[in-house]
Design brief:
The protein is mainly alpha-helical. The strands form 2 sheets. A 3-stranded antiparallel sheet has the order 1-2-3, with no helix packed on it. The protein has a two-stranded antiparallel ribbon with strand order 4-5.
Length: 251
Amino acid sequence: MRKLAKHYMRSPDQLSEEEVRQFFLYLINSRKAAKSTVTIYLCGIKFFFEKTLGRLWPVFDLVRPRRSKKLPVVLSREEVRTVLKRIKHPVLRMALTTMYACGLRISEAVRLTIKDIDGDRHQLWVRCGKGGKDSAVPLPDHVLKLLRNHYKNFGNGGTWLFPQKQWHIGTEILQDAFKQALHETGIKKSATPHTLRHSYATHLLENGEDITTLQKILGHADFSTTKIYLHLTSKISERLDKSLNELMSDL
């Protein structure tokens, strides 16, 4: 608000909607402000005019920066296995393995309890996931065996599947372990533990899984969130290249 007043050398309550619009054009075109900077200005200025002055101007919807649509980083199947093998601590390795095998967010993985494993139905329960929802995700047979061995060797008789003293492991510990393992492998991708979830979704699509089923597993409320993985699958790209080459071979 101080920058807006200084720009026009007048009190902001004396400005017109057009003058506010011109100020945002100045930020974007002259100052080359980043989207995040424009958003911060927008939030402060919009609050003043709408909440303090009661001016509900359409300009605040028009100048809102569009969200950038970046494709997430994905590791290949071989890269996932290479990174996981580099993690020396067995509890951390099992936690990250479960994240990949079940497509979990890091916050969901660290809060898993022993009771969340449904061995009879081969499911893993995710409690209070994004949006506060409970959901069940498929638990692969081999991973179920790994988790049972993990509990025999490292379970402390408490509640948490991945314990740390009297509580569960922290997200920071998993992030640091993954970062170190990624560095040791020499893989240059800007991957994080959440990349395991993106890789899980992409690999399922490459393996022929239906995208609507994937949407349910990932717990996406909006189908467009799941569709982004269609742009990441190498097998779909390979199939498209083959089709295009066949169609255009006699041009």
